[in-house]
Write a structure and sequence with these properties.
The chain is mostly helical and 84 residues long. Helices cover 54% and strands 12% of the residues. The chain is globular and about 45 Å long. One of its GO terms (cellular component) is nucleus.
Length: 84
């Protein structure tokens, strides 16, 4: 079976032309960004859309990155609280 070629279209990496997207690389947050995100999480575990947009702009992140970070942090927090 021939090797599957990588194709780039519209900035998306695709495997073998079958339309399957490869995962984007993991976001590496700076210590300053993490400090601000953690500080905000201590104030509130949920952000409204305007708050998320403002925080993302301040930190130089996308709204999606901020949203995912908060989702992951809530999940970790709940897991820790469940363990006691």
């Amino acid at each position: 079976e021939p090797e599957k070629a990588l194709a780039v279209s519209n900035g998306d990496l695709r495997l073998g032309g079958k339309g399957k997207k490869l995962r984007k690389p993991r976001t590496i947050y700076s210590s300053l960004q993490l400090q601000a995100l953690n500080q905000r999480f201590q104030q509130t575990q949920y952000l409204a859309l305007p708050e998320r947009a403002e925080l993302a702009a301040q930190l130089g992140l996308t709204q999606t990155q901020v949203k995912i970070w908060f989702q992951n942090k809530r999940s970790k927090y709940k897991k820790i609280m469940k363990q006691g």
